[in-house]
Structures are given as structure tokens and as C-alpha cells.
Design goal:
18% strand; alpha+beta; 8 helices; globular; six-stranded antiparallel beta sheet; 6 strands
Length: 214
């Protein structure tokens, strides 16, 4: 997916447009995240803090953010099937342009991170990350992924709110998708599906149908 990965992410950026971006009233309602009811009742302090910050910083992300590839490490189980309700997910991404053409590598890293959950690796940094993944009360926000998994390129793990209306078929049919990041905030959000180009939509549909690789 090297060449097509770069082509698709560049198409996403082109469709989203250059910063600063402005949105008509109707478009703004469509692309903005809303606070789910459960967030007001959530006891998880770190989750509340992270997602509230996402909601507060989304205007910066939408107006000035940059689109990069992201991959899901783990997510609320309900997000992997069609349904209702926006839920959190742990994703990874890199600001390094090298990953524009390496979304498969990013997904491989996400898979290796997921397999750390419940494990006891010898490396102390990996062991800390494994403990965090296994603890539902610990939610990362732009946490550096340990170097043994990523080498010299920076990769970060962070928590996002997956708005179902922002992904095709309202569920995570695939594990890799475009995110919006900004250097002045740890907050991250999914690029709304209205800006996804046809090649990405085709790959997503193939993954949903079980005929393609996510």
C-alpha cells in the first residue's frame, strides 16, 4: 500500500482543504463532535479529561489541523459493529511524513501494541505500556510509543472519540483511517467521512464486506 497510501492521504488533505478552514453553518454542525450523554456520567477521570479537551480543541483541529494516517489499537467493542452511540478508541499516529506511504506499517505497530496487553515484556518501557493497555482507568493522550516497536520515527498513542456519523457504515470496518492532528494540542479527531476520497471509501467497503484488507 506504499504508493496508494500516499495518494489516498494526499487526496484526504486536498478534499479537507488548506488551513485556515472555515465552514458554513450546516457544514459546521456536520463535522463537529458532540458530547455523548455518557461522558457527563463517566467516572473515568482520564477519559473525561481527554475527551473534554478534544471537544474544546476541535475548532483548532478543524481550522488548522493536518491530516495523517492513524490505526486503532483497541476500542470499545460496540464500535466494530453497526449501531448507535459514539465511543472512545485508542489509536496511534505519527507526524512524520514517512508514514504517508506506510499505513500498513502503522497498522502492524498497532497490532503489536495490542498483543502487549496482559503481557510482561522484558523491556521496562514496553512493560509500562502493556500495563496501561490492560488498565481501563488509564487512557493515554499523545503518549510516545516505545522505541523497540517503532525504531527512530516518532509514533504516538492517544485516545479519540469515534463519532459514528464520521465513519462509513457507522462502525470501524477497518483498522486504518485518517486523523486530524495539530502540534499545539494533544487532542486528535477522526477526519469526518465527508472528506474521504473514493479510493479510501472503496477500501473501507471491501474491508466491511470481508473482501479486502483493512
Amino acid at each position: 500500500m506504499t504508493r496508494i497510501g500516499r495518494e489516498i492521504i494526499e487526496l484526504c488533505r486536498e478534499r479537507f482543504g488548506p488551513p485556515p478552514r472555515a465552514f458554513e453553518r450546516g457544514d459546521a454542525r456536520e463535522v463537529r463532535l458532540g458530547a455523548p450523554v455518557w461522558l457527563r456520567l463517566a467516572r473515568d477521570g482520564s477519559l473525561r479529561t481527554i475527551l473534554r479537551d478534544v471537544l474544546e480543541r476541535q475548532e483548532m483541529l478543524l481550522a488548522h489541523g493536518r491530516v495523517v494516517w492513524g490505526s486503532v489499537v483497541q476500542a470499545d467493542a460496540s464500535l466494530f459493529r453497526r449501531g448507535r452511540g459514539d465511543r472512545p478508541a485508542l489509536v496511534i499516529y505519527s507526524p512524520d511524513p514517512a508514514f504517508d506511504e506506510m499505513p500498513d506499517d502503522l497498522q502492524d505497530i498497532a497490532g503489536r501494541l495490542f498483543r502487549l496487553r496482559g503481557a510482561a515484556p522484558g523491556d521496562p518501557d514496553l512493560r509500562k505500556f502493556a500495563a496501561m493497555l490492560a488498565d481501563p482507568d488509564r487512557r493515554p493522550s499523545r503518549a510516545p510509543v516505545p522505541r523497540p516497536l517503532v525504531g527512530s520515527l516518532p509514533v504516538y498513542a492517544t485516545t479519540v472519540l469515534v463519532a459514528r456519523r464520521h465513519v462509513p457504515d457507522r462502525h470501524l470496518a477497518a483498522g486504518t483511517f485518517p486523523l486530524i492532528i495539530h502540534p499545539e494540542t494533544e487532542s486528535t479527531m477522526l477526519l469526518p467521512g465527508r472528506y474521504w476520497p473514493p479510493p479510501l471509501l472503496a477500501l473501507w467497503k471491501a474491508a466491511a464486506d470481508g473482501t479486502g484488507r483493512s
